[in-house]
Design a protein that fits this description.
heterodimer, A: alpha/beta, Peroxisomal Thiolase, Chain A, domain 1, 2 domains, 11-stranded mixed sheet, two-stranded antiparallel ribbon, 32% helix, B: alpha+beta, Non-ribosomal Peptide Synthetase Peptidyl Carrier Protein, Chain A, Thiol Ester Dehydrase, Chain A, 7-stranded antiparallel sheet, disordered C terminus
Amino acid sequence: MPRVFITGLGFITSIGNDAATVTRNLRELRHGFEVYPPFQKPEIPVKVLGTIKDFTTDSPDPEDWTFPAAYKIKRELLRTMAPNGLFAHCAMLQAVADAKLTEPDISNPLTGLYAASAGSPYLLHYHNDRLNKVGVMRCSPLGIVASIAGTLNFNLVAAFKIQGSSCGFSSACASSAHALGYALDDLKLGRQKRMFVVGAEDGNVDAILPFAGMRTLSLQTDPNLASRPFDAARDGFVGTGGGVALVLETEDEVVRRGVTPYAEVLGWGQASDGWNVAISHPEGNGSAAAMTNALRASGVAPENVDYVNAHATSTLIGDISEARALRAVFKDAATRPAVSSTKALTGHGLSLAGAMESAFCALALRDGFMPGNAHLTKVDPECGGLNILRATENTPPDIVVKNSSGFGGANVALVFKRVA
Amino acid sequence: MPDAVSPNQGNTKPFPPTPKPFTPEDETALREALKRCSPSAFEAAVQFRKTGNPEHVPAVVIGVIERFVEPDLRMKLKDADDDLRLIEDLGIDSLTMMEIVILVEDVLQMTINNDELRNLRTVGDVKTFIDCKIRGLTLPKPTKFIPIEHIGAVMPVQPPFLFLNEASVSSTAANGKYKISGQEFFLQGHFKDNPVMPASIMLEALGQLAVLYLLEGAPTEPGKVVSPQTIFFTGCEGVRAHRICKPGDILSLSIKPKRMKMPLATFEGAIRVGQEKAVIVEEITLTFGLVDAVDAPVPINGTAAQSAAAAPVVVAPPLRVAINA
């Protein structure tokens, strides 16, 4: 089976809208949180969000949006985008330039695109509301493709003239990790020679606040304290949106095009909790099984893993489950890998999380560092026994594992390797 | 026959329709709806909503279309020519057409059905369509695009004396194109070492387009069709040639019926090359006759069935949103 490499990245995230800024903020542990104006109402106890800077997408009309002038997007494309579509489109443009892809490299039967977003609850609500107000035959003809789950892949596949495999993935917070895993399969099985993997989320009021009902959102008002994965004082996750794109290519393509990859994608694994629709398994069984499957598929022994970018979202139950899973997989305390959750900096990107954090792993592997777990004052004893990094380490990791878990107890683990 | 130019028969609705009261809230909503359209389109929409006067409709429609056309193509709408094609010339796809329709419905307070959209191919089609809707008139026959094979099959004139490469015919006009190839036999002598399209031949080309209109576009009595064998030239007036036309020039021909009264049909006509006037004819008159539809003479060069099989009329795909879902 061909080896597969990451050759391009693009970022629109709460901690930066380009790879250089994101790398600096990961190294220096600078977060992307702000007191989010639309939350500042007495009836909304949630106050903080991982905000996307230099973009305004708070109108239902894309022609009202503003974004950096470097991105030229025709109305014809913009009109069917949700905010997450805009973020992802910009991230795709970065990834294409980063990987030095030409138009024929992008649009051919052997290049595909897998994407994940939760759709746009904001636009779905707006368009259905219009339908009720102005009449069935006068609702926007573009409302559906701009808002339903799948809007991200519809838009990107059409805009970039993708001719290979295309699909949207929907496993909540594991979605874009699933997308990456199945993209890897398509490449390993020889079905495709290049895959774009994209995750994106609106990260606005309608996308984030519905989680408040479950009591999973942090109610912290101080952006510096809101997201604290593994910390004893954590009180829930901080939402975020954005878009991240990765370019995966087979070794033949990497050699043919003469590009330097960020990292190799060794393998992946998945497993389900078989437990609860929204509560993770108390022992982290599914997550542990996913990691074990991924390591086996990659031919990597647990003791050879240097760094795990955890799923840990800063929720009370989830972080404990994952800590237990990590202890179960990496049994030997002496050789346990370094662990951190970069959600302490970005917030939880939901469907975006897997792709965003895999891209962080690619940066860490290329630049030789392991980002610390920010905002960690006192490790929750339930999460003890792990080598949680309090500060960024400038030791180059060789093997990195990325965990993602989603509703329904879906768990994905991905394994990346440094390019020697 | 007169409903070719004034399709007013059978109309029982009051004209102009009594407008609903136009409130300040309506004006605010209208301003919001037309916020990306030109001020003149907004002003025309306000006037229409206040008075119900259909004269304001074209400015609204053009304003709405302009708003949805990519900026670099908007210049084309400035000297809008009703023959400007929505898809080919303005890059409007079926989704954009739906955006245009919904905005027009909203600002003009009207309802347009899917079926009615199918045949809107040109800016003129859209203007006529909305005008008819607002006046409560019967819609004219849609514009038909007629390829060269079909022109050859229906016309009594044949090569090497046929001067139409393609044509479109509606009930109110016909348009055609002819490229001067340089191989036309008469150019050998007109003139010596200096091939120039004879003005008389350009007049002939306009006459041929009028013939095609009579055969394909003109409304006739029920059960009757115009017989190709009965059409002949009777006269013309006000002919002026403005430009020398030479091999390589593409002649854009257009005719519009001015009067139709059996057995005479009078048209005005014009030929342009690009934006330049080449020939103007104030009046060109043909004589024609009707035959029963069942006894219609078969087209030249074969039986009706054969020629229909050999040269089907290419019907453009309907302008509807293609649902892939």
